[in-house]
Amino acid sequence: MNEFKTKYGPWAIVTGASSGIGKAFSEHLAKKGINIVAVARNKENLRKLQSCIEDQYAVKVKTIALDLYEPNAAVKIGELTSDVDVGLVIANAGIQNHGLFSESTDVDELKLLALNVSGPMQLSHIFAKRLKLRGKGGILFTSSGFGYQGVPYFANYSASKAYLITLGEALNVELKPYGIDVTVISPGYTNTPMAEGTPIDFNKMPIPQQQPELVARVGLHALGKKATVVPGLINKALVWGNRLIPRIWPTKLLGLLIGYARIDDRVDVNL
Ligand SMILES: NC(=O)c1ccc[n+]([C@@H]2O[C@H](COP(=O)([O-])OP(=O)(O)OC[C@H]3O[C@@H](n4cnc5c(N)ncnc54)[C@H](OP(=O)(O)O)[C@@H]3O)[C@@H](O)[C@H]2O)c1
Description:
The chain is α/β, with parallel strands linked by helices.
């Protein structure tokens, strides 16, 4: 049995598995011989993922069609996986609001916090306890390069992703003595439905587009080695560069760039 499977198998939970980066995580894990608990709302996409993975690899896929906005969604995931031995939890699902914070609704901003902050926190809390009992395992959070500074027009989104970076760093140290590896991956602009729906002309932004397969591969490779990881040299350089300059500079620069690259100035929230 390979080392990865021994430590993080036999089952992994992936939230947001129905598309984009979560789907790529599921496919990479299946290649490594790990069974998947795929969580998302879209039943049809989950069913397709299940048959695609089970047809190609000798693993099982259990699907949980669940709106993570529901109160105690993480508790439900815990209950629905009580019959399988989970070694890895990937808190990947997230949503993005964009536009002027002062003009969005509190319902939309609170929904974002439920999906991007409370959900991953509660899931990691439940599984930190479970993984501790088995003495090995991993937790992987999907944050964002936007989490490394405040980002105008994505204010609550960037703040929610900063939370995950801080939570993951702390848990990396806290859980290490119990054999649990915690990593936060912070992708840049990645070719997924979420990015496609963002009203920004990314050609006007000096950032490369990445593929979800690369992001998933880098995240899984970093487990057990790094507390935080940023895929891609340019994205890494941007994050490292932030440390050398006053905190507000990258925020001002991103405000200018996003203002320039916005496709329209409608206040559109909730992709
Ligand atoms: N794409 C980028 O450029 C980029 C960059 C940095 C970070 N990220 C982060 O990467 C993560 C994955 O995003 P992605 O780019 O792969 O986007 P995506 O393709 O739109 O995937 C989002 C996933 O989250 C699920 N999801 C959304 N709302 C949900 C809800 N209420 N309940 C349950 N599941 C829900 C979606 O499934 P259903 O619709 O079926 O529920 C889908 O599987 C997010 O945390 C995002 O913030 C993305």
